[in-house]
Structures are given as C-alpha cells and as structure tokens.
Q: What sequence folds into this?
C-alpha cells in the first residue's frame, strides 16, 4: 500500500455546468488513519445532483458551501483495507460518506457508515437502502402523504431518487406517472419499472401530455426539478394535492431567482408544498430500511445504474446528471 | 313589510380596485320565501377580502367567478322577520351566508346558518365563532402547526382573520409578531391586543424590522397577503418553518402572475407552505367553536370592528380593505 491516492478537489465555484474549470484531480499520499478509523478502498462512488448546492458561494442554501480547496465528499461503496476500529474487519464491505477518491478515510463512530451484508447485490443495497431510498420514502410518505389509489407524478423519474419514489409509490398502490427526457427513458420507465404512464419533457407540450396522463389531476407531485416544469404541473394538481420538493435541480446553477408564476394555485387548490432534505433523515436510516427492505428482497423495487469507469472520468458522469444524460443511479466504478 | 329590498349586484368584473364601475345598488321587491326558508332583516353584514376572488373571470381560483348580474353574497347578522322553518321563530337573531342587501332570503337546511344566542354580544360572536375564527384556528393549528414558545408572524394582523390568528397564537403561548400598515395600527396591536411586536410595512425596511423582531427566525407565518411581502419574509423563516397561506390579498387584482423569487428557500429551509380555504371548514364550525369559544368567554380573544353605516356606503368600506384602511372586521351597519 505504498501507492498514492488520487482525489478530486474544489478549486473554485463552477460557473453553470462548467465543472472542469473548477474541480480538479490531484495526487496525494495514502491517508493515514487514527484510532477507531478505517481506510477504505473505494470500489464505487455515487454522484448526486444535490451536491451541486455545495459548489456555490450561496450561504442560504441547504448545504453550507464547500470551502474552496476541499476534497469532494460523496457516498462510497468500498472495502476496508486497514482497520483500527474493533467493529470492522479488513475485507468488510461498507457504504459511507467518503471522498471522490481512490481511498476514503472513514470514522464509523461519526454515524454515517454502514456495513453491507449482501456482497453479491451490493450496489442494489447501496442504492435502495441508502440516502436515495430514504429521501424517496420519507418524501413520498411524510411530505407527499400518498395513499393507495392516488395519482402520483415524479419528475426526474429516471434519476436515482425519482426512480425509487416512483417504484415506492407503485408498491403503495398508486397510479404513477414519471417525467423523463427522451423516448427511450420513457419507454424503460413503463416496460422495466411498471410505471402507469410517462411524460417525455423533450417532446414538448408537457401540459398536453399531463392532461392526457392525469385527467383527474395529480394528488402528489414528487419533484426533483422545480423551475418551469413545476409551473406547468401546478395547474394539473388536484384539490388538496401535495408537492414534495426533493430538489430543484433545474435552478441550482441559475443566477436569477424566479418563483413559479402559478404560485397562487397553492391557495386556490389548497395545496401543501413541502421542502425536505435527505441528511435530516440519515439517523432514521435503519428504521426506513425495515420498511423498504422487503421490497428490495421480493424484487418489487430495483435500481438501474449509469456507470462510468475510472476516477478520472468523474466529471463527465457528473455533468450528465444536469443534462438528463443518465438513467438511474450515476456511479463511478474504480476497479476493472 | 310592503317595502322594497335594496341589493348590490355584480354588473362587470372590476378592473383593479375600481369597484364602483362594476358593482351597483339596485331596488328590488322584498324576497318571497318558500317552505323551510326564512326572511331575515340584515342588521349587519360583513365584508371579506377573499370575496375579491369572486369578482374576476378567472376560472382557476378557489371560488368560481360570480356570474355577472348576480346579487352579491356575504355573511350577514340579522333578525328573522318571517319564518316558514319550524326551527326558527320570528325575532331570532341568526348569522348566515346571505346577501349584501336590506334583506336576505335564507334556507337553514343548506347548512350555513347559525342561531346567535348571545344577543348582547352578537357582533363578537358573529366575528369569532364564524368563518374568520374558523380560518384563523384551522390555519394556525392544522396548517401552521404552532406550538407554545414558537415565533408566529401574522400578516394583515389588523384584518379580521389576522387579528384572530394573532390572538389565538398568543393564547397558545407563542411569541406573536403582527404586520400592519401605519404606526397607529401597529401600536394598537401591541397595546390593545397584547402582541409581542408589530411591523409597520408602510415605514419601509420590513427586512430590517423582521430581523429585529425575530432574530431567531419565524416558525410559523400566517399569511393573508402574499406577493412581495412573502418574498421578504421567506429568508426570515426558521428551519422547518410552516407558512399557512390564508389569502394572497396583494395579488388578487394583479394582471400578471409572479411567484416569490425566494421560492427555493422552501427547499433550503425545509419549509411547508400550505394553502387553505375557509369554506372547506364550515361543516366543522361547531367543533372549532368549542375550542375557541372559551377564549371569547374569558376575554382572551376579542374582535375590533371597522363599521360603515348604511347599505349605500358598502363599496367605500370594501375598497378600504384593499388599501389597508381598516382595523379589525369590516362591517356594514344597516340600522341606525
């Protein structure tokens, strides 16, 4: 283990989607670990659109800005190569909040590290029993308050969290409409994941497509996108509908702030619009996994993966998430 | 009773606040009543800002447009002068959904008519145990989810519903900040109604005033106003705050729709924004009155009235509500 550790570092706050000018790959030494820490060789790490909020100097967002010069954090799935913690043997597979790097230095006592028991299926467990699953479950149930028989709309339904929200809603007995970009993605949502209908925002006339897919209105909108799409959706909400705002990915790199023109429909239609944030639920992970775990085990819910090979290709994969290029969970694979 | 019945009629949809060109006073015959109906001499009727939504051709508001040529409806407090209903004797005082007129023809079986037992205090009962009170109570508790010790902000705090919301929040053990226009109103809110602080939007720098009055943020915003004020309030919301949208009075006569620029703070601060509409709770009136009635009886909650004498002066009083000219419940008095 005399080798080094490549890692991605934030050098400036990116302008729009120009990540390559702002985030660079560096060579560093292999991290040294303290007592009760682990050194983990990253096998995979996950890219999450929400992290875009870190890469701004805005101080009023839901994440404080990542200080310039910081290594970039992310969820990793890796193997313990050195352990100074009695609870973890070398060779164990863990998922944790680590670094976009070859290795992660991790402190299990910090509470954001979980052992992965099902090695054969490790990526499914990583994806469904982690933050994407927690966000989807809590958003849909506690903020979206979905009930069987209701009509649920999910934006970014081909994204990791959206894909789980859509499937959780199906498993709850809802009619589920997914919004995604492109004919292929929309067809996959129906054929592979069983959605009731899908809406291709790239085809245009989202309003007309919504009218057709949800003639009686939408009871719950699980929204990852915000922006103009939200404005188009608002008039299609049913009375007493709920909008669970999981993300506003269309607005993260906007310079000018704009609210939905149809904001007043929140009153007119007695809607409830609620923002929520995944890290608020991390401490409830085990509880939520007991509820969603059976769906993973009986095959009702599965994740699709969008894999990019090689640490050096991270930013290409990251940018794809903001242009709708990915389907499912975007992951970087570090081993051959 | 051979006399006639003057009534206000909607002849066109008003442009902005030009009500006089659109709504006119007519002379009609005394209404004839059917079996199980009442003829009520209006003693008072109430003007409610929310009715502005009726007077538009917009079909997606929370009230269908009032058809042109219709007599204008409103809450009346009156005395039964003719009864063909076994439950109501002539001379009884009732509050009901009647007409802006000398007389109202009412059908108790329609479910929006209540007998007033406390004649001496009839206006307080009319105001607190009716729609304003129901709106304030349900909005504050079920949408605003206030808890003792929290900081509650109420806009249009000198309006009928706002004044009750502020007092209900005080009675619940909250710190209550009221927004109103002008020094006199702001002083009354504190001196007469016991509010913790008040904010004079006419003084300007509402942002600075909010910073001073709520340095730790606002847990619940009971909003009757919407528009730019809401945009100024959003950055002052505390994490996990709730915004109960009771009305959007600043936007009702706007031609262009604009949403709050700070909409994304709903996500960043994990806020819940909920619209609600008083008539949805009318059937729960008795239940709510059992909860708020004790506050009326023990004097913890009271209404202020803004009285205009004479049916013919109705529109003057109505317009005052949109320019912040009133304090408390705006009522038209029909008797000397």
A:
């Amino acid at each position: 283990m005399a080798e080094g550790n490549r890692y991605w570092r934030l050098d400036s706050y990116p302008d729009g989607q120009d990540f390559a000018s702002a985030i660079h790959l560096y060579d560093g030494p292999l991290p040294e670990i303290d007592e009760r820490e682990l050194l983990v060789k990253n096998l995979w790490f996950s890219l999450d659109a929400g992290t875009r909020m870190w890469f701004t100097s805005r101080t009023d967002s839901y994440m404080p800005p990542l200080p310039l010069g910081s290594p970039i954090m992310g969820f990793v799935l890796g193997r313990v190569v050195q352990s100074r913690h009695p609870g973890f043997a070398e060779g164990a597979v863990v998922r944790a909040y680590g670094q976009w790097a070859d290795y992660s230095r991790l402190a299990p006592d910090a509470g954001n590290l979980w052992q992965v028991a099902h090695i054969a299926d490790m990526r499914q467990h990583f994806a469904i029993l982690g933050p994407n699953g927690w966000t989807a479950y809590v958003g849909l149930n506690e903020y979206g308050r979905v009930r069987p028989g209701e009509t649920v709309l999910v934006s970014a339904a081909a994204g990791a969290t959206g894909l789980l929200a859509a499937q959780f809603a199906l498993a709850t007995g809802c009619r589920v409409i997914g919004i995604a970009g492109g004919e292929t993605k929309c067809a996959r949502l129906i054929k592979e994941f069983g959605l009731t209908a899908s809406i291709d925002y790239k085809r245009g006339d989202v309003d007309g497509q919504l009218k057709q897919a949800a003639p009686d209105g939408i009871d719950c909108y699980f929204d990852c996108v915000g922006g103009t799409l939200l404005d188009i959706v608002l008039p299609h909400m049913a009375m007493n509908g709920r909008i669970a705002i999981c993300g506003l990915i269309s607005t993260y790199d906007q310079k000018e702030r704009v609210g939905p023109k149809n904001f007043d429909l929140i009153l007119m239609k007695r809607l409830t619009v609620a923002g929520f944030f995944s890290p608020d639920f991390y401490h409830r992970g085990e509880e939520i996994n007991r509820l969603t775990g059976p769906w993973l085990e009986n095959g009702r819910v599965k994740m699709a993966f969008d894999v990019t090979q090689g640490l050096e290709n991270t930013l290409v994969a990251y940018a794809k998430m903001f242009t709708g290029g990915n389907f499912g969970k975007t992951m970087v694979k570090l081993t051959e």
